[in-house]
Automatic annotation (TrEMBL):
Lineage top rank: taxon: Bacteria
Reactions accelerated catalytically: a 2'-deoxyribonucleoside 5'-diphosphate + [thioredoxin]-disulfide + H2O = a ribonucleoside 5'-diphosphate + [thioredoxin]-dithiol
Cofactor(s) this protein requires: Fe cation
Protein name (database record): Ribonucleoside-diphosphate reductase subunit beta
Function: Provides the precursors necessary for DNA synthesis. Catalyzes the biosynthesis of deoxyribonucleotides from the corresponding ribonucleotides.
Enzyme Commission designation: 1.17.4.1
InterPro entries: Ferritin-like_SF, RNR-like, RNR_small, RNR_small_fam
Pfam families, per database record: Ribonuc_red_sm
Species name: Novilysobacter selenitireducens
Bilayer-crossing regions: 165-190
Keyword Hydrolase (UniProt): no
Key words, A-Z: Deoxyribonucleotide synthesis, Iron, Membrane, Metal-binding, Oxidoreductase, Transmembrane, Transmembrane helix
Co-factor note (free text): Binds 2 iron ions per subunit.
Length: 335
């Protein structure tokens, strides 16, 4: 039997609601509202001018260049592929909210680049990173390959098409949001552990929470399809997912070699690989699969003090969020 959630067409009936969990996720996201204007970059500018060596400056420039295009790619996949085929109005409500959040992230990174790179030529180069920085181009190509795999699907009607769709969703949730972006977050929190770029870190806290919720939604979609059509999740599909995550780790390691090419004290390629493999194992666990790499988290700066700071941050009310946020953040799934 085909998965009800991936049936072709557009179900418009919210009552009776088939998937109330998606509606709850939508309501939780609404309570998670923030704005870019709340982020204060004033101290960051001083840090960049007076506290950064060449190696750290290269790290930041590569990081913001990746940010400049990453969420736009996610947004395009969301609109062109996910919204088209997830056939439940309550799920599409969440995807509409996610699209807003991705636009907010794009605005955040636009503001970040305008602040960090006042020279117009440097800024133009960063925005064109997909064309002129090979390590970022490779990550974009990885994304586009999975986007293109379902781009021409007008309707999902066969078992193979449902598998294609699931692999696209796994790629964007586990590899792009759950690996590429979480690697970027690690660089940000490393800098914060050295007392640097607190504006970037505070905005990243908000982005981090949004991305964690996006992953939770995607994994809930995958779990729902698994319950409705368990035969889809055979050894072949699981093997493709492991291969995909392994490739994503190598792709991100090529970026790490670029980012850390100047030699950044406190960050090594060995530890970065271990952290990526740890994240990949976390994603496999969220997909109900066995760990593949057996890696532990090597980064002390991603430890409990960071969790506590972000937790306190999200318990603030009007000054930090337009609406108070309730509930816990699943940091164990991230770090």
């Amino acid at each position: 039997m085909p998965s009800h959630l991936l049936d072709p067409g557009f179900d418009l009936t919210l009552r009776p609601m088939r998937y109330p969990r998606f509606y709850e996720m939508y309501r939780d996201a609404i309570r998670n509202t923030w704005t870019v204007e709340e982020v204060d970059f004033s101290l960051d500018v001083n840090d960049l001018k007076h506290k950064f060596g060449q190696a750290e400056r290269h790290l930041v420039e590569r990081l913001v260049a990746f940010f400049a295009t990453g969420d736009s790619i996610v947004s395009n996949n969301l609109v062109l592929n996910l919204y088209t085929h997830i056939n439940a109005p309550e799920a599409r409500m969440y995807l509409s909210r996610q699209l807003y959040e991705e636009a907010l992230h794009v605005q955040f990174y636009l503001t970040l680049l305008d602040t960090y790179l006042p020279d117009p030529s440097a800024r133009a180069k960063a925005f064109a990173a997909v064309e002129n920085i090979p390590s970022i181009r490779a990550k974009a190509d990885f994304c586009f390959r999975w986007m293109d795999s379902v781009q021409d699907l007008k309707r999902i009607e066969t078992r193979e098409q449902r598998r294609q769709f699931l692999l696209n969703l796994v790629c964007f949730a586990a590899c792009i949001e759950g690996l590429f972006f979480f690697a970027a977050f690690a660089y940000v929190y490393y800098l914060r552990s050295r007392g640097l770029l607190h504006g970037l870190a505070s905005g990243t806290n908000w982005v981090f929470r949004d991305e964690s919720c996006h992953m939770a939604f995607a994994f809930e979609v995958i779990d729902t399809v698994r319950r409705e059509e368990p035969s889809l999740f055979d050894d072949a599909l699981r093997g493709e997912i492991v291969q995909m995550l392994t490739e994503a780790v190598e792709c991100e390691m090529a970026f790490a070699q670029d980012v850390l090419s100047g030699g950044v004290v406190g960050l090594s390629l060995k530890d970065m690989r271990q952290y990526l493999e740890y994240c990949a194992d976390q994603r496999l666990g969220q997909l109900g699969m066995a760990r593949h790499f057996g890696a532990t988290n090597p980064f002390g700066f991603m430890d409990l003090q960071d969790v506590q700071e972000v937790t306190n941050f999200f318990e603030r009310r009007v000054s930090a969020y337009q609406v108070g946020v309730q509930g816990d953040v699943a940091f164990d799934a991230a770090f």
